[in-house]
Amino acid sequence: MKALVIGGAGPSGPYIVNGLVERGFTTTILHSGRHEPPELPTALEHVHTDAYDPAKVEAALAGRTFDVAVVTYGRLRRNAEILAGRVGQFVSVGGFPGYRGYMNAPLFEPPGFPVPTREDAPKVAEPVEDEKGYRIRATEERVFEAQPNATHFRYPWVYGPRQPAPREWSIVRRILDRRPFLIVADGGLSLSHFGYVENVAHAILLAVDQPKIAAGQVYNCGDQEVLTIAQVAQVIAASMGHEWELVSMPWEIAWPARPLVAQPWTTHRIVSLAKLEQELGYRDVVPPREALARTARWLAENRPAPGGMEEMVLQDPFDYAAEDALVERYRAAMGGMAEPVWAKGEAPGFGLAYSGPGGRARSQATFEG
C-alpha cells in the first residue's frame, strides 16, 4: 500500500506520517524541505518541491498513483484536482474560519459564534463577511468537485511542537520571566476550540482506517475538553511549578490579554465533535491538560527568539513595564470601589436553585439515604 502526504513536516504532520507507516503504508511526503522534524521516520521518501505551485506538484507526481493521500499543505483545491483519479482515498485538511461568524462574531445578533457549531452550520456567504473564511469555504467545495469521495477535516487552532503561532508562548514566556501575574479579560472565561497535534492526527488516521464510513464526509476535529483561557494559564503554570495571580480586567482595558483571546470579542468559539465521535469513534489520545504540559515543556526547551517570528505572529509585545503600570492603575481604581448600601440589608444572592458553596443552607440537618 502506498500513501502520499502533502505537508507532513508541520505540527501534526509527523504524527500522521508515523501513523501511516505503522499501518504498513509505504509513505511519500511532498514538502518544501525547509523543515525536517526529527520525529519523521527514516524510511521515508521525500519529494521536495513547492506545494503552492500546481505545475511543480504535477511534475513531481507525474505518472504516480497512491492508495491514500493526506493533503494538509499547499493549494488544496489544485492539489485535489491534480490527484483526481490517481488516489484511492483523498483526505484533506481545512479549518474553522469557513464557518459564518467564526472570525466575525457580529454577523450574528446578538454577536457570538453559535455554540456548539455543527458541520452543517452556515458558512461565510461572501468575501465582505470574511475574505479568508470565504476562500476556505470555496476551497472545500472545489475539493469535493474534484474528489467526490474525499474526507475533509476542519482543523482548529492546533497546539504542540513546531506550531508557528504558539498561543501558549504568551503564557510560557511570562512564566520563564517569573512574572507575578497574568492579565486576563473578563475572568479569562472565554472558550475556544483547540486541538493538540497528536489528537488531530489521530482523527485523520481514523478516517484512513475507516474509508467507507468517511467517504464524502466533513468532520470537525479538536480536543474533546475545551478549557477557558484562565484554565489554560493555570494548568501551564502548575506544570512549570509557577505560582501567579490572574488579574481579571474588563475586556475594554485588558489590552495585554488580546493575544490570548485572539479576536476583538470575548465570545466563545466551540464546535460540535459529535459526528467525529459517533461515526469514527474519536476520543482524545492525549488529555488536553497533559497536552498543555507537554507543549509548555517543548516551548521552554525550544524557546522562540524574543521579538522573533512567533512573537510577531502573536502580536504580543511582552511589554512588562506597561503591564505593571496598567495593573497598578486598575488596582487603585478598584480600591476606591465601595459596595453600595442595599435597601434590604443584603446583597443579591445566587438564587435558591444554587446549592453549591455559598448557596442556601440545607433545609434538613441530616440526610437519610
Low-confidence stretches: none
Gross morphology is globular
* CATH A-level architecture of the domain at 84-332: 3-Layer(aba) Sandwich
CATH superfamily of the domain at 84-332: NAD(P)-binding Rossmann-like Domain
Q: What percent of the residues sit in helical stretches (DSSP H or I)? A: 25-40%
| Strand arrangement in the largest pleated sheet | 3-2-1-4-5-6-10
Quick overview:
This protein is α/β, with parallel strands linked by helices and 369 residues long. The chain has 13 helices and eleven strands.
Tell me about this structure.
By secondary structure, the protein is α/β, with parallel strands linked by helices. It has a domain at about 85-330: NAD(P)-binding Rossmann-like Domain (Rossmann fold, 3-Layer(aba) Sandwich), CATH 3.40.50.720. It contains 13 helices and eleven strands. It has helices at about 15-20, 55-60, 75-80, 130-145, 170-175, 195-210, 210-215, 230-240, 260, 275-280, 290-300, 310-315, 320-335, and strands at about 1-5, 25-30, 45-50, 65-70, 85-95, 150-155, 155-160, 180-185, 195, 220, 245-250. The strands form three sheets. The chain has a seven-stranded parallel sheet, with helices on both faces. Helix 4 links the parallel strand 5 (about 85-95) and strand 6. Helix 1 (about 15-20) runs parallel beside helix 6, helix 3 runs parallel beside helix 4 (about 130-145) and helix 8 (about 230-240) crosses helix 11 (about 290-300). The longest helix has 16 residues, at about 130-145. It is globular, with a radius of gyration of 24 Å. The N and C termini lie far apart (about 60 Å). The model has no long low-confidence stretch (mean pLDDT about 95).
